[in-house]
Amino acid sequence: MEKFDVIVVGAGPSGNAAAYTLAKAGVNVLQLERGESPGTKNVQGAILYAHALEEIIPDFRDSAPLERHVAEQRMWMMDEASVCTGMTHRDARFSTPPYNRYTIIRARFDRWFSAKVKEAGALVICETTVSELLRDAQGRVVGVRTEREHGDILADCVILADGANALLGSRAGLRREIKAEDMALVAKEVLFLPKETIDARFNISGDEGVVIELAGNVTHGMVGTGFLYTNKDSISIGIGCMLGDMKRQTITPYQLLEGLKRHTAVRPLIEGAEMKEYSAHLIPEGGLKALPQLYGDGWLVVGDSAGFVNGIHREGSNLAMTSGRLAAESLVALKAAGKPFDARHLAEYKRRLDDSVIIADLKKYADVPDFLHNKPHILDVYPRLLGNAAHEMFMVDGQSKRAKQQKIYAELKSRRSLLGLLGDAYHFWRAFR
Amino acid sequence: MNAATELPTINVEEKLFQNRYRVDAGRPHIAVRNAEACLACDAKPCTVCCPAGCWRVEDGGKIDLVVDGCLECGTCRLVCDHDNVDWNYPRGGFGILFKFG
Predict the structure, then answer these.
(1) Do B72 and A41 lie within an 8 Å CB cutoff?
(2) What ipTM did this prediction achieve?
(3) pTM summary value
(4) Domains contained in chain A, CATH given
């Protein structure tokens, strides 16, 4: 039976970061991917945060397939169909190289990243689904079983980069099963338009791009958000809600997405576009409290499979890449010191995670998932109140501004009691501080 | 509610038609473990939450599962309260092949 130092399962951002870092350090690494080619099973909005990738491939900008750099960020509070109140942040510093964030198309980006992994010296085998982990009599992970004939492969360590469903770890009993309440389901489309049309509609030029984050009643009372990102000659649009909410109602994901596309603030932006792909994906949004065991005898878990997502800041792929890098660097350091890849020594990975931005940010927002779960009206009542208040103040109709202010206050009180308001503000502060 | 908002009825097949698949004919990667349990399930959240409309209710409450359009998200497995979904990834190279992702 063949044996490697490390097997990486999955060729998404975390698996690629891990395999690349290991191969660069001269570790004998095998990476297995179930897709026809890397990227064909992967879905993301997608925003690439340069910083995490720079730490792995400093000159990535010279060759990576990037769509547009993010020049402008909009945050919109929406109702179901026709009201949108928002904020725009445009700052020329974001249009000064080196750029901080880019829109990307994952299938293209992942193929590029995988080519880098191969260049670095890793053996990458696609069209191979790993069905389970191999364990020895002591329960140590010693390799993987693939569905191919004679498909068992051994390794000193297996890195689980198998994505949000985390099947391998759950099936091996290395972690508890993921729960609907901790996962968001996102439905997405890629809509094509000529570059000039996108430039004109979004007030951008060259390789400037706009990202719009959408919150409020577009999710019909469910905890969730939407997004709209400009690529070179296409627009990525999607909407996601917590599965725990979604399973208790009757709107389908594609109805939600269609409702968003028909919203009066969105429709003119995508008018006449050609839809070329419809996708869906789960995102682990349970945060710090939902993190599984992250290492054990002969194994480490990284990326979505580990639940490294900061839902509030829409960060995931950067945390995936950073966790993949930290996992690889831990193994490289242990190997150099002649240490075995057992649980005691692999705790090094957890130490590096604890010192990183991943755990720091997840800690900061540890209470947010519970907060939103317990107070779903936050995403319903307040965007609506904000929209109505803006409408009242912008509508010039002969009423005094004081009368309008009183009307707004009356509506506020009718929707939330003073105590309710104070409670919301307090819990919001507690969860986000 | 400000405005009674009617969400459109969507034929999800028209969306899926844009996607690229390599169907593993005769080897569906998802299966119902026990059809009786689905008959007894009132909520049937799989039929609402599946983003590809793979899960449909037939007359009499029976579940009809066709996985050809599956997006491999894993939702059906998680929303089932009866642990009645036998869910696997397709064999290597089969299933959805995202062009953009």
Answers:
(1) yes
(2) 0.96
(3) 0.96
(4) 3-67+104-176+292-355 (3.50.50.60), 181-284 (3.30.9.90), 369-432 (no CATH)
